[in-house]
Amino acid sequence: MSKDKLEKLLWSIALPGFGQILNQRYIKAFLFIFLEFLINVQANINDVIILSFHGKTQSAINQTDFQWLMFYPCLYFFTMWDAVKDAKGESSPLMFLPFVFAAYLSTVGVVYSSKLTILGILVGPIFSPILIGILGILVGIILMRFIQKTTN
Predict the structure, then answer these.
(1) How many folded domains does the chain comprise?
(2) What gap in Å lies between CA 102 and CA 14, rounded to an integer?
(3) Which one of 23, 64, 103, 139 has the fewest CB atoms closer than 10 angstroms to its CB?
(4) Does residue 117 sit in helix, strand or coil?
């Protein structure tokens, strides 16, 4: 990944829409930032993050609006992919795979976040999608490399 693509990716991780600003795609940037704030407020994400980091997982689950939170992983990973796609430098036509699998599996993580336990500890609505999303990124990278090797 080129330095330019990595920079756009990291800014998109910081806040969906920032990568689009750097790519001078201002309408998309405004739309993504608006959607991020809308979903964030409706799902109570900031409060849930604070509760989760303080180990108050059940309170975090109780405060979460799961109907809204389910939109967040797809928006989050789509904005990252879009920023990387529009950045300068070469990229694989299969670069979307890690982002797609991360979005799908993070959404599954949201669905099961109120029940998922690891070593007997309830994971919750913030850490569950993150952990399962990492698995999605790995699956997407492995699949992308497998397809690239078999087509070359």
Answers:
(1) 1
(2) 17
(3) 139
(4) strand
CA dist 124 to 52, 67, 90, 109, 117, Å?
A: 7, 15, 38, 9, 8
Cβ atoms within 10 Å of 117's Cβ, excluding its own: 11
pLDDT of residue 94: 93
Identify which of 102, 73, 89, 84 has the alpha carbon closest to the alpha carbon of residue 25: 84
- The answer to whether 39 and 75 have CB atoms below 8 angstroms apart is yes
Q: Which H or E run contains 122?
A: strand 121-122
**Residue 8 belongs to what domain range?**
3-151
Cβ(149)–Cβ(125) under 8 Å?
Answer: no
**What amino acid occupies position 125?**
P
The pLDDT tens digits along the chain (152 residues) read: 789 999 999 999 999 999 999 999 999 999 999 999 999 999 999 999 999 999 999 999 999 999 999 999 999 999 999 999 999 877 788 999 999 999 999 999 999 999 888 777 789 999 999 999 999 999 999 999 999 999 97
| Residue 90 contacts residue 24 (beta carbons within 8 Å) | no
